[in-house]
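Appendix B. Worked example

We walk through a single record from start to finish. Start with the input: the chain for Gnk2-homologous domain-containing protein, Aquilegia coerulea, length 245.
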Amino acid sequence: MSSGNLVPLSMLFFFTLLLKSAIGVEPLYHICSSSFNYSSGSPFDKNLNTLFNQLSTKVPPTGFGQSSVGGSQETAHGLALCRGDVSTADCKSCVSTATAEIKNRCTNDKAAVIWYDACLLRYSNVNFLGSIDSENKFYLYNTQNVSDIESFNGITREFLSRLTDKAYRTQKLFATDEMNLDNKIDKLYGLVQCTRDLSGLQCKRCLDNAISEFPNCCDSRRGGRVITGSCNFRYELYPFVITKK
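Next comes the structure step. The output line below is what the pipeline stores for this chain.
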C-alpha cells in the first residue's frame, strides 16, 4: 500500500468533524485494496490470522509491533501502533477490535489499513515495513474557526514542527506538549507520532510532509489532524492527551 505497491488505495479524504477527546469504538477511517484478493482458508488467510495473533500479543506491552508471516507471494506483512498516551489495556482492546473489524470491512482483500483514535492497524501482501506511507491519508478538523487566522496558523505550524523535532529523537517517536497563546486565555495542545518501523529521520520527514498539508486540512480551524499510514499530528484548543496516573 506504500507508493508503487498494488493500486493506489487512496487519494485525499476530507472530513468535517468536531473532534472529541474520548477514545471511540468506531474507526476514524479505513481503506481496503480490491487489487488482490485471497480465498478463505488459503495460505494467505492463515498467514494473516497468524499475523493478527502475533500483533495482538506484541503490541500492547510497548504500543507497537510489526511482523511478516509466511513465504513467497503468500506472506502477510503488518504492523499495529497504539497512541503513545493510551494504557496497555486500552491498546490491547483497540488492536483486538481493529483486527476483527478490518477483516469484516475488507473481506478477502490482501491489503488494508484501519485507524482508530487509539490505534492503527495495517497489513499487506507487499512488504511496506520501513517505508514511509505517503499515499494513505486523510484529514480531520474542528468545525469551529479561530479569529486571528494568520497568527494562529503560524503559531500552530511552528508548534507542531517543534514537537516533530522532539519526537523523532525519541525511542517511541511520539511527543506531546502545550503552550499558552498570546491572549493569555487559550492554550494550544499538540501530539505527533510515527510508526516505529521508521527511522528517526524517516519519522521527521513523514511529519514534516504531514505538517505541509496544514493549509489544506486545517487553515483557520481550532483543531485538526493529518493522519497517514506512517505518522500523524493533532492539535486542539482543549486538552485531549490522556494523563497517566
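Two observations about the output. Residues 29-129 form a domain with the Killer Toxin P4; Chain A fold (CATH 3.30.430.20). Residues 43-62 form the longest helix (20 residues).
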